[in-house]
Design a protein that fits this description.
Length: about 200
Amino acid sequence: MNCLVKSLRVCLLSGGESRRMGRDKALLPHQKGGVWLTAMIDQLMPLGLPVVVVSRHQVHADVLAHQSDLKFVLEPPPWNGPLQALNFVLSSGSDGAWLVLPVDMPRLTTVVFQQLIDAWRRHPNKVAVAHDGERLQPLLAIIPSGSPFRTSLSEQLSSGCYRWLDWLDRVPYESVVLPSRCLLNANQPKDLLALSE
């Protein structure tokens, strides 16, 4: 078996400012109980993979304090968005690959994660990026941590470009069509209405 497949880990990105939402999205109540952050952890744990939560918010660590089976990492500045957080993770010196996801896709499920993992296993030397049938959802992806992924990311950030899609154009990737309903990205209050439908 490919060594990349053996060393797959999870990185949950939870460090955004939630400016458009007006309050911390990670701490919004989830319809299945808990808050978005803990509900996402509940969906990730059945995968049996090591989970790392990356956030700049100490309150997120406090919420997860009872979770002994995951690691919380306080993201250091500069805080320039999720691509900078990804670079922090890929630069940690660990080999293998990362299932990376944002905290603000509250409909994601264990089944959807497994579908993405199964697709990535067929081409483990590429980034596997979620696609909702209309467009890429780049914050949900499985990303190998070696070259050219880590080096191209560092080069792009050094140039001052923080767009995730620009980075994807620099690396080999394939899109993986997943159920669009599960990929709803909630960024502002009106998106909460769509979640309740």
